[in-house]
TrEMBL record:
Residues 32-104 form the MIP18 family-like domain. InterPro entries: Fe-S_Maturation_MIP18 (IPR052339), FSCA_dom_sf (IPR034904), MIP18-like (IPR002744), SUF_FeS_clus_asmbl-assoc (IPR014291). SUPFAM superfamilies: Fe-S cluster assembly (FSCA) domain-like. It comes from Methylobacterium hispanicum. NCBIfam families: SUF_assoc. This is MIP18 family-like domain-containing protein.
Length: 127
C-alpha cells in the first residue's frame, strides 16, 4: 500500500507529512515547485496570491505524482469561484514531474483573515 506526502498548514506553516515512495530530494523539489506554482495564482480582486492568503488547505502528492488540492475562497460567492480551481490545476499541472492535478473546493473550515501570512498582511495593509 502506498502512502502519500501531504503539504499542510497553508501559508503559515507548510509541512510535508507522511511517507512517500518518491525519493526525498525529488519530493522536496516537487513541494517547492508546487508552492511556487500556487503562489503564481491570484484572486483578481485581492493583490496577494492564494497561497499567502491561506486559501490552500491541503496539497496531497501521491506516489504516482498525482496532486490533489483542497482549497477555499475568501467568500463562497466569489466572482471567480468557477474559474479559480482551473487556474490552480493549470499552474500545478505545469510543474515538471506532476502527472495530474485535481482541485476540490471546500468551505469547512470557513476562511478567515487569521489564515493569511505576514506577507499577505503587508500586501493588504492589514496590521
Amino acid at each position: 500500500m502506498s502512502t502519500d506526502a501531504t503539504i499542510t498548514g497553508g501559508a503559515n506553516a507548510p509541512k510535508v507529512e507522511g511517507a512517500s515512495a518518491i525519493p526525498p530530494a525529488e519530493l522536496d523539489r516537487l513541494t517547492d515547485e508546487i508552492v511556487t506554482a500556487l503562489k503564481s495564482v491570484y484572486d483578481p480582486e485581492i493583490p496577494a496570491d492564494i497561497y499567502e492568503l491561506g486559501l490552500i488547505y491541503r496539497v496531497d502528492i501521491g506516489d504516482d505524482r498525482a496532486v490533489a488540492i483542497d482549497m477555499t475562497l475568501t467568500a463562497p460567492g466569489c466572482p471567480v469561484a468557477g474559474e479559480m480551481p482551473g487556474w490552480v490545476e493549470n499552474a500545478v499541472s505545469a510543474v515538471p514531474g506532476v502527472q495530474s492535478c485535481t482541485v476540490t473546493m471546500v468551505f469547512d473550515p470557513p476562511w478567515d483573515q487569521s489564515r493569511m501570512s505576514d506577507e499577505a498582511r503587508v500586501a493588504l495593509d492589514m496590521w
